[in-house]
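Running this now, will post back.
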Amino acid sequence: MLPTVFNFIATWGPAEVTLNGEPFENPFDGPTPQWAGHTMTTVGVRNQDGQVLTVDGDIYNMMESGNGFVDNDDLEFHLVFHEAPMPMTSNFPPPHSFFYHLTFEDIKLEIKHSG
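Update: finished.
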């Protein structure tokens, strides 16, 4: 999916997803409306056109994760949500019937200490 990247912060857990303020229901996991959620703030992996490239400028091949280009001067926020995993049949593709991976650019990371 992505080159090997540095994560400043990452989270995993149940997620309630909304679209335009309305619940975005999970039709795949029965009575629970929650999705399996994951967020991460990483160094940059996408260029201005949204492409993930290799260090040579070619289209990134996820089977060669160490060859991906990363921009240590850029930050990206990733929001991933999907239904609970189905039984594993192989390592790829991920065993999901629904998988959203949204990437946000132009973010600022601020860490505050309260106390």
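The two ends are 39 Å apart (CA to CA). More later if anyone needs it.
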